[in-house]
């Protein structure tokens, strides 16, 4: 329970900081459109994305790499790099790679520390819509 209790506020604080210090022109357009979705659509979209990504990256890739390398750290680092690599839209806005890599490392760490896929899934699912809702309702604003 401690891992989600630390990970969720930590990743939200990281996302908020990155959002308020980064000029909006350096933020991927996809991230700007999510806040226009309805609450049910946001929840559905974010859950489906988190479920797919955690099943693929933590349950399959990270576990496979752990078996192959015998090192949780190596498995987490390679999985996080692959996670960032599939978010190709961020290559045009390199600062966004930081926005995807740090959470990927946290998701990987939370999975390795707990051996429970539900932990990174919950963290992933709560952080993504959390940021979206903070932007949608004007709690935080992108820097112009």
Measured as a percent range, the helix fraction is over 70%
Largest sheet: number of strands, sense, barrel closure: none
Quote the beta fraction: under 5%
Distance between the termini: 38 Å
What is the 3D shape? Answer: globular
Work out the number of β strands.
0
**What structural class do the secondary elements suggest?**
mainly alpha
- What ranges have pLDDT less than 50 throughout 5 or more consecutive residues? none
Mean pLDDT: 90
Helix count equals 6
Q: How many domain modules?
A: 1
User: What Rg, in angstroms, do the CA atoms define?
Assistant: 15 Å
Task: Give, in order, the helices and strands.
Answer: HHHHHH
Give a verbal description of the structure.
- This protein has 144 residues and is mainly α.
- The chain has one domain (2-136).
- It has 6 helices and no strands.
- The longest helix is centred in the middle third of the chain and has 31 residues, at 39-69.
- The model has no long low-confidence stretch (mean pLDDT 90).
Task: Give the key terms.
144 residues
Outline the secondary-structure elements:
Layout: H1 2-21, H2 29-33, H3 39-69, H4 72-86, H5 95-114, H6 118-136
Helix pairs in contact: 1-5, 1-6, 3-4, 3-6, 4-5, 5-6
Brief write-up:
This protein is mainly α and 144 residues long. It is built from six helices and no strands.
């Amino acid at each position: 329970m401690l891992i989600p209790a630390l990970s969720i506020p930590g990743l939200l604080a990281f996302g908020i900081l990155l959002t308020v210090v980064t000029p909006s022109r350096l933020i991927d357009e996809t991230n700007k459109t999510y806040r226009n979705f309805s609450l049910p659509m946001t929840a559905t979209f974010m859950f489906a994305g988190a479920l797919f990504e955690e099943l693929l990256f933590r349950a399959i890739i990270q576990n496979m790499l752990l078996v192959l390398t015998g090192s949780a750290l190596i498995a987490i680092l390679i999985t996080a790099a692959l996670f960032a690599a599939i978010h190709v839209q961020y290559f045009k806005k390199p600062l966004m790679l930081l926005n995807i890599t740090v959470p990927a490392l946290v998701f990987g760490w939370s999975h390795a520390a707990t051996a429970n896929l539900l932990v990174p899934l919950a963290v992933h699912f709560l952080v993504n819509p959390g940021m979206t809702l903070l932007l949608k309702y004007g709690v935080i604003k992108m820097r112009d």
